[in-house]
Write a structure and sequence with these properties.
Layout (H helix, E strand, L loop, with lengths): L11 H7 L10 E2 L5 E3 L19 H11 L5 E4 L15 E5 L20 H14 L1
Antiparallel strand pairs: 1-2, 2-4, 3-4
Length: 132
């Protein structure tokens, strides 16, 4: 049996889910250029705080959104914490179309590449395996 979804009266996404103060299209909350949000009904600030039952449909819904929009290239994004660019303190997922190879549209990502870290990564891998 699913637990009742938690809600926070001051959370903009909880207000959208309830449909009281902020009306929305609850299948897709569409943004310019096809950017869509998937917002779990349970209020959790970060992914690890969200009960698994509220995650079960997220990727199938993301897939349906991408398919319905006919997207060939796109990103699925989920941020946790301010330093990781989370703005709204309610777990949510973005489906972001990437219409072309330029940095003019869609998500633009920079990743600092490191070299000579194989031994460090192997050690960390073993630590993680012990915790899983």
């Amino acid at each position: 049996m699913a637990a009742a979804a938690r809600s926070l009266s001051t959370c903009i996404f909880c207000k959208i889910i309830k449909g009281m103060e902020i009306p929305s299209f609850k299948i897709i909350e569409d943004r310019p250029f096809g950017h869509a949000l998937i917002i779990p009904k349970d209020h959790a600030v970060k992914l690890h705080e969200l009960p698994d039952e509220y995650l079960a449909d997220v990727m199938p819904i993301a897939k349906k959104i991408a398919t319905a929009q006919g997207l060939e290239n796109y990103n699925i994004l989920q941020n946790n914490g301010r330093i990781a660019h989370q703005v709204v303190d309610h777990v949510h997922f973005h489906v972001i179309p990437k219409p072309d190879a330029s940095d003019e549209e869609g998500l633009v990502i920079g990743w600092p590449a490191k070299s000579d870290v194989v031994d460090e990564v192997k050690k960390y891998h073993q630590e993680l395996l012990g915790k899983l």
